[in-house]
Structures are given as structure tokens and as C-alpha cells.
Q: What sequence folds into this?
């Protein structure tokens, strides 16, 4: 019995690199997206990893160094490919039995609308087509709570069954993830076993300049403002644990919300600030302030052509009070989630 790594994925990265793992008996699991952290499991797996850009290999290496696992990094064979480059995918799908599709572009900048659709929808369609053509047994797609439905007047909490209302406003990102889910359901109709997971905001250490790490870095640098909005949060460890268990089960044709708890942003910001031993954000950014701010960011982005880090949709998300249910995954797998506040204290504590 060999202990090897099972990759933990952080979905909040602006890239579409991907990796795959292979065991010694030609039973292979293909994983799209970037390596975030890992946990050991008793699986007979060796590993090959596909990359899109060389600098992302170095980012991954730094993460292995963080956990003193360079020996595992050196055991990986790196292969160049891209989910939008069909010929490059051809050789990657030889003897693949399971696929974890996590690659995505995450952006709320209106200028990225076409790119979002291309990477998130077309890229997913490519993965689905290869799964069907190559006889893959099971596909797990990592979507987002952004692709879930819209509450009706009598509803108070969003579940897997909440219906998408096309008449309501949705961000370009949400539309692209919803469109990608349609590709997954197409795969099911054509005979592929599929699972969709819808994580909330994923928290995990490793990359301070990307994803949820940017929020933690801003608070560490003295973020002044907070909002009273709320959303669902989940530790990256729990995302991977549940994905793995779902893929190893007989469950198919289902989607599952992955959140540990719904948290008000101010409460989360305070926990992060206290953990980092910095001043808590102290000024509430009310709708009026957020309205002025996103417009200023828009004008700045328009004239500089730089990425808009606070779009109208971003401001809307920080002000929204969204509540999600995790009852389905907890009941199905009899699982529990790490406490987010405790997780932050343990993983981001300043000595």
C-alpha cells in the first residue's frame, strides 16, 4: 500500500490549467485546474500533471515547499496542454476512468464576458466530449453557488432545487457557470455518470495574491471597509473531501451545495483581522458608498484598460444577503464541515 497525494483544488484562480493522476494499473483520474494543497490517502496512484503556463508550475512548487513535500512534486511528470486546445487533450485522455473538472475563469469584470463563456462553457464542452468519446466512467464538475437558482417571494434559503429565473439579473460569471452545468447535464443524457458540486467561497492558505487569498491580504494590509452582506463559505479541505467521496460512491446525476456555514462579511473580516493581529475593518460600506465606488472603478478601468476589481456585480455580491443550505450533502454522505472561524485561526495564525 502506497501513500500518495490526492489533490485539493482551490477554484478561485484566474486560470484554466489542469492536472491528472494515474495509478499503476492504468486506472486514471483526470483533474482539471490548479493544485492548491493536498491530503494523503491510501491509494495506489502515481501522478502526471498538465500545465498551461510554466509560471504556474513554480507556483505549485512553492506550495509543495510550504508543506515540505518537494519529493512528491519531483515525482510528477508535467505535460503542456489547455482545455481550449482540443488536440492537446487527445493524449491526456488515454485510459482515463474518472474526471474532476475544476478549471474555470473567475471574473466579474464586464470586459471578460466573452472569455468567461469561452473558458467556462466551451472548455467544459470539450471536457464532456472527450469523456463521452473516451469511455470515461464518471465526471465531477466543480460549479459555484453563483449558478444556483433565485429565491421566490416565499423562499428564504437557496437549495439545489431552487429554480434559475432567467428574468432576474445574473453576473456574466454566473451565466457562464450555469451554461457549463448544462453541458454536464447533456453528458448525463448521453450516458455519462456525473456529479456537480456548488461550493461557496473557498477558504485556504497558499496564494495570497489570488482568489480568497486576496481578501485575506487586503485585510492584512489594513482594509478599512466592511459590508453587512453574507454568503456561504467552505474550507478547501472540505471541498476535496466531498468531491472524492462522491466520485467513489455510486451517486450520479446529482448536484450538491458545498458550504460549511453562511457568514456575514463583517464577522468573517473580524475573524481574519483578529487572527492576523491587525485592526478590524471599521467603516461600513453601505449601498450608497458601494454605488459610488464601483462607478469610480469602472471609469478608472475604462481609461487605463486595467482589470476592474470592483465591478457592479462584485459590489452587488458584497451587499447581498444570500443563505444556502448544505443539508443535502450532509445527509447523503453523513458528513460534517470544518468550522470556518476555527479553520482561519489554525491556518492563518501569525506567530
A:
Amino acid at each position: 500500500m502506497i501513500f500518495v497525494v490526492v489533490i485539493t483544488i482551490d477554484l478561485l484562480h484566474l486560470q484554466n490549467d489542469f492536472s491528472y493522476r494515474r495509478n499503476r494499473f492504468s486506472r486514471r483520474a483526470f483533474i482539471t485546474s490548479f493544485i492548491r494543497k493536498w491530503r494523503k490517502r491510501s491509494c495506489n496512484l502515481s501522478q502526471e500533471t498538465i500545465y498551461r503556463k510554466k509560471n504556474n508550475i513554480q507556483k505549485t512548487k512553492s506550495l509543495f515547499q510550504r508543506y515540505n513535500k518537494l519529493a512528491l512534486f519531483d515525482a510528477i511528470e508535467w505535460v503542456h496542454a489547455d482545455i481550449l486546445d482540443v488536440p492537446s487533450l487527445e493524449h491526456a485522455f488515454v485510459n482515463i476512468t474518472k474526471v474532476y473538472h475544476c478549471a474555470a475563469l473567475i471574473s466579474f469584470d464586464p470586459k471578460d464576458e466573452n472569455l468567461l463563456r469561452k473558458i467556462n462553457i466551451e472548455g467544459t464542452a470539450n471536457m464532456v466530449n472527450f469523456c463521452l468519446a473516451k469511455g470515461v466512467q464518471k465526471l465531477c464538475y466543480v460549479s459555484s453557488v453563483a449558478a444556483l437558482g433565485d429565491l421566490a417571494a416565499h423562499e428564504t434559503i437557496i437549495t439545489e432545487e431552487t429554480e434559475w429565473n432567467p428574468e432576474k439579473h445574473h453576473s456574466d460569471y454566473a451565466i457562464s457557470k450555469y451554461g457549463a452545468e448544462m453541458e454536464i447535464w447533456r453528458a448525463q443524457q448521453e450516458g455519462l455518470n456525473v456529479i456537480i458540486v456548488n461550493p461557496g467561497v473557498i477558504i485556504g492558505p497558499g496564494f495570497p495574491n489570488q482568489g480568497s487569498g486576496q481578501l485575506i491580504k487586503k485585510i492584512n494590509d489594513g482594509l478599512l471597509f466592511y459590508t453587512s452582506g453574507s454568503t456561504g463559505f467552505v474550507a478547501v479541505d472540505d471541498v476535496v473531501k466531498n468531491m472524492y467521496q462522491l466520485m467513489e460512491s455510486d451517486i450520479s446525476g446529482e448536484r450538491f451545495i458545498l458550504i460549511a456555514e453562511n457568514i456575514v462579511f463583517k464577522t468573517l473580516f473580524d475573524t481574519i483581522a483578529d487572527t492576523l493581529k491587525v485592526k478590524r475593518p471599521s467603516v461600513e460600506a453601505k449601498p450608497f458608498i458601494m454605488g459610488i465606488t464601483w462607478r469610480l472603478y469602472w471609469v478608472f478601468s475604462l481609461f487605463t484598460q486595467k482589470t476592474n476589481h470592483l465591478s457592479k456585480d462584485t459590489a452587488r455580491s458584497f451587499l447581498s444577503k444570500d443563505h444556502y443550505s448544505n443539508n443535502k450533502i450532509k445527509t447523503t454522505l453523513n458528513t460534517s464541515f470544518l468550522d470556518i472561524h476555527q479553520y482561519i485561526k489554525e491556518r492563518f495564525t501569525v506567530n
